[in-house]
Amino acid sequence: MSNSLSIEQQARAAKAYVLQELRKTSAGQQILDDVDFFERLDMNFITVFAIFAELYGYRHDCLDQLVDLITMCGTSWQARAPELRDLDKARELDPEWYMSNKMLGGVCYVKQYGKDFEGIKARIPYFQELGLTYLHLMPLFLAPKPFSDGGYAVSSYRDVDPELGDINQLKELATELRKAGISLVLDLVFNHTSNEHRWAKKAAEGDPEHSAMYWVFPDRNVPSAFERCTREIFPDDHPGSFIQLADGRYIWSTFYHFQWDLNYSNPTVFRSMAAEMLFLANLGVDFFRMDAVAFMWKQMNTDCENLPEVHKLLRAFNALCRIAAPSVLFKSEAIVHPDFVVQYIDRYECQLSYNPLQMALTWEALATRDASMLSQAIERRHNITRGCAWVNYVRSHDDIGWTFSDEDAKELGKDGGSHRKFLNAFFVNRHPGSFARGVPFQDNPRTGDCRISGTTASLAGLESMQGHAIDRILLAYSIAMSTGGIPLIYLGDEVGQLNDYSYLNDQSKMDDSRWVNRPSYPEQRYHERHDESTIPGQIYKGMKHLIALRKSTEELAGGRAVGFFTGNETVLGYQRPGTGSTVLCLCNFSDYGQWVGRDRFMGLPPSARDLVTGYDVALREGIELKPHQFVWLRY
Ligand code: GLC
C-alpha cells in the first residue's frame, strides 16, 4: 500500500484485489453474486479498509487479512436466516425504530431469573404484561466454574453455559422473543476472554501465534512500565494490570486474573472476534452490549483507556455489521468520565449508550435531597448525536461508581473527592440518618476508591424501612422513563426486590459484593404484584402506571431532555419538546413539600395537564409538590 495515493485510491485498489481473490473460488464467486451483499460491501468497504490500513497497514499480510475478513462476512451473510434478512430490510426503511417511546428494556440473568432458556421463554407472557420491547440477557456463554465474573469471562462465544441449555435453544428463544415484539440484547465481551478459552489455553502453553493474541511479556519490565499509568480495576483480586503465568511470563488482565485482555494490535484478533460477533448476530441478536469498550487498546505512557484506536475498532466492527448483519446495533458500556462516555455515541459507532452519569446522579440527588448536580448533567451532558439514544437505568448488575466530573462538581461548590466519600458512606449506611443499605465494592484504602453494590429497593430505603422508599423508587424510575432514549428495568426492581446476602455463603461469590444485587427470581413478590395492599403490589402499580404513561406520551420518544431551571435546588426540572406540545417534568427530591414559584412558568400557558395524576395544574399560581412527587406537565 503506497502512501502517495489518497485513501480512496488505496481503497479502490484494495477492493479490486479482494474481489479478484474472492473470484478465484466458486464459494467466493457465490458471495459476490449476492446483490444485497455486494451493494452493502460496496457502501462500507472504504470504512473497513481505511481503519484496517491505519491499524494494520504496516504488516505485510494486511491485504490478505482483509480478504479473509470479507470472505468471512460473505459466508456469514449467506448463513443469515430469511427472517433476519427481512428484519434487516424493514429496519433499513425505519432506521430510527429504537427511538420510539414504546421502547422499554429489561435486564436479567438467565439462571437467576428463569433457571434456563426454557424458563425465560416461559416468562415471555410476563414480559409482555410489563411492556418490554428489549431484553438483555446477561452473559450466558460457556465460562469457567465456579469463578467467571458473572459470565464476563467467556470460554467460547459459540457455546452456552450447559446449565442454561444449548445454542439451538438460545436461537429458539431469540425467535420467540422476536415474535413477541422483544429485541434480544446480548453482551459482546470482546476486551478479554477467559483463561479457559481455546486461544488462551494455547497461549498459556506457549504457542507463539496464540500468545500474540494477548498481551504477553517475558518479564516484568514492560508490564511495570505500562502500570505506571494504568488504573487498578479489581484491586481486591490483584494489584496492577498484569498477572503472572505458570511459565513466568506476564499477561495483561484488566479485570479478574482469569480474564485476559485481547491484543487488538494483532489483526488476527480483530478478524477472529469479528467472526464470533457475526456468528452471534445470526442467532437473532438485535443489540450487542459492547462490554468494557474503554479498555480495548493499549499504548505505553497512557492510562490505556478510551484511546482513539478503540473508536476505530468500534467503527470497523459496526461497518462489518452493516455489511453482514445490517439490523444489528451496538450499545456501549463505558462507565468512565462523562467526557469520554459521549465519544462512543455515534451512528457509526455505538447507536446506544448506558447513561452512567444520570444513573449515579439520581442516587446522589436522593441522598443529598439536592438536584443541582443532576440538573447540571441534564443541561450540559445529555445532548448526544441525533439518531442515537441513551439507555437510562436506575441500577445494573454492577456496582454504582460516582463517575461525575470533578470540574462540574466544583462549579456547584462541591469537592469531587470528599463528595464521593460522603456518597460512599451514605450508601453503605455509615452516615447518620442514611436510608440506604448498600455494600462497598472494591474498597481500596490505598487509592481511596470505592463503589456501591445494592438493589434499587435496598438503596432507596425499603430494607431499612425508614419511609419514602416506594416514592424514591418511583421517582428514580420516572426519570429513567422520561429523559429520552430507552429506559431499562433491572427485572425484580418493579416488585421492589431487596438485597440478597446469600452470596456471603457461597465461596465463588463472597468476595464480589455485586452478587448482593443479583438475586434470584422473587417468586413471592411477583405473586403479590396485583395486590395493592402489599409493598410489591404498590411498587408494581406505580411502575405499570409510569410505563403506560411513557408509552402514550409521544413527546418522550427518543431525543433528549432540555434543562428547566426550577429555582429550587431540591426540585429537578427538564422538558421534552414534541411536535406542537411539550412535556415539562418536575421531580421533588426532598422529604418535604416544595414550591416552584410562579415566576418560573412565565411565558408558559396559565395551566397544564399533569399526565401523572390526570389533573390540570394552574401554572400561574406556581406549583406545590409533595415529598418525592413528580409531575409530567403537558402544555
Ligand atoms: C463490565 C461488566 C462487569 C464485568 C466487566 C468485565 O463492566 O458489566 O460485570 O465485571 O465488564 O468484563
Automatic annotation (TrEMBL):
Residues 109-514 form the Glycosyl hydrolase family 13 catalytic domain. GO terms for biological process: carbohydrate catabolic process; maltose metabolic process. Keywords: Maltose metabolism. The keyword Transcription does not apply. GO terms for molecular function: alpha-glucosidase activity; amylosucrase activity. Gene3D superfamilies: 1.10.1740.10, Glycosidases, Golgi alpha-mannosidase II, Oligo-1,6-glucosidase, Domain 2. SMART domains: Aamy (SM00642). Belongs to the glycosyl hydrolase 13 family. This is Glycosyl hydrolase family 13 catalytic domain-containing protein. It comes from Cyphellophora europaea (strain CBS 101466).
